[in-house]
Design brief:
By secondary structure, this protein is mainly alpha-helical. It folds into three domains: 229 residues, Orthogonal Bundle (Clc chloride channel), CATH 1.10.3080; 225 residues, Orthogonal Bundle (Clc chloride channel); 155 residues, CBS-domain. The strands form four sheets. The chain has a three-stranded mixed beta sheet. Strands 4-7-8 form a three-stranded mixed beta sheet. The radius of gyration is 30 Å and the shape is elongated. It starts with a helix and ends in an 11-residue tail after the last helix. The N terminus is likely disordered.
């Protein structure tokens, strides 16, 4: 739809342009701030587009005058790529720093490195000469807190002390995170993706992408992830990258003065964010296209590709995981998958869809409760309570104690000959002489059964706790917890299938592909498919999800199982409700977001939706040559509309154009300061030339230049289906309703959204902003 969208947009802009001769002389800006927007308002895409075309035309005509102007025009053309380069460098660096800090602080909850306290557990034992292969996690330089304080590493006392300090550190980290968010940057909480979707659709939330938000979000993200809460850093990294994009937009007037152009940069920044979050540059571009962007012209596609590339390259040179990979979860499987395995893969897809539905419903219900009850007034207490419960329940189970990324990494892993994890405790055949990488299926040992119990408990724990964690007043992503739920379920299914294949290899389903002594089932692959299914169920991504998953794990030959699971989970989840988690949060917050994917099938007309309705007061309009400055000021004071239609006279009501409230206010204020003779009784003229007035009359005020002479109009009999489409594809703020040239009423974006909510039997008053 993006291609068609950009096409319609440019076609209409071209039409608007020609229709009005010169739509806006905004470039010789007569006074500052004209054409800007207020907070919590929607931008006018058409106006932004035509302003940019105007600016471009001016630069092109000037570039023929002198060498200096030519250089300036070349710099202007290159500025987009420069911004992308800067976004990639900064977001890659921030992601690397966040990864390193999270690694160190997560390990700090358990112990400390004596040789250099800034080393994480893994780095500490890399430098040690005394590690053995079996106990590669144990080295004298790394000491747990109990051992450091009491000298005893084992025993009940040491366990209790370690437990207590683990909970204490977790509480400290989360308390710091929530306090910083609360005091310095309230916008730094949550995942940020619902708001970014809304901003990219043309809404203005000032400060959401500001410098403070960037700084606080980066710091608190490290604290929140390290506290061991069930949240990820992926969603917030998209927000962080968009803050970087906004920061660099302010350096170039081409972007800082044009909200439409700025959104193109932010779309590309979102791609860079996913690129560093998952080490998946192509997945990032597709994510921006499929999930967050509203208007995505081809130029933005190439630029996001470049930004994602630079960001991934920067992260790779920092090498935060020390494995020369961009991600923690890189896996290499040695066995192909078989057709019969599609059945468990599709079942995992069904599980993912059901979990997605359950999670969205429960989480939205809890967030609504937080909004409407006393709970919302105590964000710090809520975070501390949830952290306390999480830490107390997580510590006894080794699978929930470690960071979620490490857990996923272990679940994805294939059991090689060198694995020391409990999940790989199989009973080996003593007379086995085979190459190391191709180990046949073996019966599970006691370690595996023990691990299965712990994983089952971890699964229940993760499912429940994530519902309460997502949406608290700290930075919290959803990708990693959803993937963890899916990976745990997948690994359990994988081990079950593997054991069935081993013990019943003469069954008809296993006979064809699973001979005794062959390595036929890879449980790690099931974990990967489960992770994709659950993430798809929650976010409803399909294409970008599959690409992210195989870039993330390097599992190229497993695209078909991943696609099967992703599509199944989307179908199952869509059967219960069309909205993904981000759309549901947008609805919950009442943002004016017109989803491109929503179908509008009701048979209503523009006249049913337009205001004024039957019993309303008449429409507030201005006349072209009989309104005084005082009348205009009174109108602005008495109403809160975003703009006013201009008509020939109140009797004829023939439409001439539309003028924005903010531009009117600024124009009058400016005229009173700078233009002599403009008083309250001066007449405002929207005509081409003001008539010659007698000398005794006050000086008239000419405001033709702020009048939009080609406002978008529809007739009163236009089907709402078409109106909704126009609003969606052209990003309109408002549209005037006429009948044979006479003005009847106005439809704003808010009216459209409220009408759609009403048609779906939802509360139309839930849409709060303009």
């Amino acid at each position: 739809h993006c291609g068609s969208q950009s096409l319609t947009l440019s076609a209409v802009c071209f039409w608007t342009f020609n229709a009005s001769g010169n739509l806006m002389d905004f470039l010789d800006e007569p006074f500052p701030d004209v054409g800007t927007y207020e907070d919590f308002h929607t931008i006018d895409w058409l106006r932004e587009k035509s302003r940019d075309t105007d600016r471009h035309r001016k630069i092109t005509s000037k570039s023929k005058e002198s060498i200096w102007e030519l250089i300036k025009s070349l710099l202007d053309a290159w500025s987009g790529w420069v911004v992308m380069l800067l976004i990639g460098l900064l977001s890659g660096t921030l992601a690397g720093v966040i990864d390193l800090a999270v690694d160190w602080m997560t390990d700090l909850k358990e112990g400390v490195c004596l040789s250099a306290f800034w080393y994480s557990h893994e780095q500490c034992c890399w430098t040690s000469n005394e590690t053995t292969f079996d106990d590669r996690d144990k080295c004298p330089q790394w000491q747990k807190w109990a051992e450091l304080m009491t000298g005893h590493a084992e025993g009940g006392g040491a366990y209790v002390l370690n437990y207590f300090l683990y909970v204490l550190w977790a509480l400290l980290f989360s308390f710091l995170a929530v306090s910083l968010v609360r005091v310095f940057a309230p916008y730094a909480c949550g995942s940020g993706i619902p708001e970014i979707k809304t901003i990219l659709s043309g809404f203005i939330i000032r400060g959401y992408l500001g410098k403070w938000t960037l700084l606080i979000k980066t710091v608190t993200l490290v604290l929140a992830v390290s506290s061991g809460l069930s949240l990820g850093k992926e969603g917030p990294l998209v927000h962080v990258a968009c803050c970087c994009g906004n920061l660099f937009c302010s350096l170039f007037s081409k972007y800082s003065k044009n909200e439409g152009k700025r959104r193109e940069v932010l779309s590309a920044a979102a791609a860079a964010g996913v690129s560093v979050a998952f080490g998946a540059p192509i997945g990032g571009v597709l994510f921006s296209l499929e999930e967050v962007s509203y208007y995505f012209p081809l130029k933005t596609l190439w630029r996001s590709f470049f930004a994602a590339l630079v960001a991934a390259f920067t992260l790779r040179s920092i090498n935060p995981f020390g494995n020369s990979r961009l991600v923690l979860f890189y896996v290499e499987y040695h066995t192909p998958w078989y057709m019969a395995e599609l059945v468990p893969f599709i079942l995992l897809g069904v599980f993912g869809g059901l979990w997605g539905t359950l999670f969205i419903r429960a989480n939205i219900a809890w967030c609504r409760r937080r909004k409407t009850t006393q709970l919302g007034k105590y964000p710090v207490l809520e975070v501390i309570a949830v952290t306390g419960i999480t830490a107390v329940l997580a510590y006894p189970n080794p699978y929930t104690r470690r960071s979620t990324s490490e857990l996923i990494s272990e679940l994805f892993n294939d059991c090689g000959a060198l694995e020391s994890s409990q999940l790989c405790d199989y009973i080996n055949n003593p007379n086995m002489s085979r190459p190391v990488d191709d180990i046949p299926d073996r019966p599970a040992g006691p370690g595996v059964y023990n691990a299965l119990w712990q994983l089952a408990l971890a699964l229940v724990f993760k499912i429940v706790i994530t519902i309460f964690t997502f949406g608290m007043k700290i930075p919290s992503g959803l990708f990693i917890p959803s993937m963890a739920v899916g990976a745990i379920a997948g690994r359990i299914v994988g081990i079950a299938v593997e054991q069935m294949a081993y013990h019943h290899h003469d069954w008809i389903i296993f006979k064809n592909w699973c001979r005794p002594g062959a390595d036929c089932v890879t449980p790690g692959l099931y974990a990967m498919v489960g992770a994709a299914a659950c993430l798809g169920g929650v976010t409803r991504m399909t294409v970008s999800l599959v690409v992210i998953m195989f870039e993330l794990t390097g599992g190229l030959e497993y695209i078909v199982p991943l696609m099967a699971a992703a599509v199944t989970s989307k179908w199952v989840a869509d059967a219960f409700g069309k909205e993904g988690i981000y759309e549901s949060h947008i609805q919950l917050n009442g943002y004016p977001y017109l989803d491109v994917r929503d179908e509008f099938t009701h048979r209503t007309l523009a006249t049913d939706v337009m205001r004024p309705r039957r019993n309303d007061p008449t429409l507030a309009v201005l006349t072209q040559d009989s309104t005084t400055v005082e009348d205009v000021e009174t109108l602005i004071k008495d109403t809160d509309y975003n703009g006013f239609p201009v008509v020939v006279s109140r009797e004829s009501e023939r439409l001439i154009g539309f003028v924005q409230r903010r531009d009117l206010t600024l124009a009058i204020k400016n005229a009173r300061q700078k233009q002599d003779g403009v008083v309250s009784s001066s007449v405002v003229y929207f005509t081409e030339d003001a008539p010659q007035l007698p000398a005794s009359n006050p000086q008239p005020l000419k405001l033709r230049r702020i009048l939009n002479l080609s406002p978008f109009t529809v007739t009163d009999h236009t089907p709402m289906e078409t109106v909704v489409d126009i609003f969606r594809k052209l990003g309109l703020r408002q549209c005037l309703v006429t009948r044979s040239g006479r003005l009847l009423g106005i439809i704003t974006k808010k009216d459209v959204l409220r009408h759609m909510a009403q048609m779906m039997n939802q509360d139309p008053e839930s849409i709060m902003f303009n």
